[in-house]
Amino acid sequence: MSEGEEDTWVFPLVQMKPLGIQVDEQITQRLLTDAGPESTMFLTSGYFNLTRAYMRLVLGAGASYRILTASPEVNGFFGAKGLAGAIPAAYIHIARQFYNQVCRLGQQERVHLHEYHRSQWTFHAKGLWYYLQGQDRPCLTLIGSPNFGYRSVHRDLEAQIAIVTENEELQSQLQEEQEMLYQRSTEVSSSTFEQPDRHVQLWVKLVTPLIKNFF
Question: What domain of life is recorded for the organism (predicted)?
Fold first, then answer.
């Protein structure tokens, strides 16, 4: 391509906080901070457990958020034996706490939580799609391993790329990928957590705050 014809930029992002490498965390925080009013952020995580910093930015930002996570039956630990079998319930508890906080702050029209459903599948999708105000296709996406949770930020080695593009064909492909995921989802409401399969035992509620930073 001739100079000046570039329409797409790819940035590698790495996170290894124990070694002082925080590139992915810094860029993610910057995106959540600078997302302007009337813009829209689609964020997916198979294991929804936002760090306090990310949660504070989501709840305090001006952008609209559509957050997609696993329903209990597509959680990777669904049906596991022993204590691991209670992990989906712990994520239900975390999601309910987040949803209740959204409601307490009156942010239901701006921050929406969705659950992915697909029989006989598990859900591990991780990503972010950013739509500028008035645009019907994303101009930025994150592709990689982070779940946007404590373990991803503080413990694990994570790698992903940020793609920024003005190429309309590529934008349409990114949009198609995002829409395919959300088409198999339902939006969470207060009635969601009243369903029998969303009952969380007391011991799980008590233990979750102690172990949530490990997953």
Answer: Eukaryota
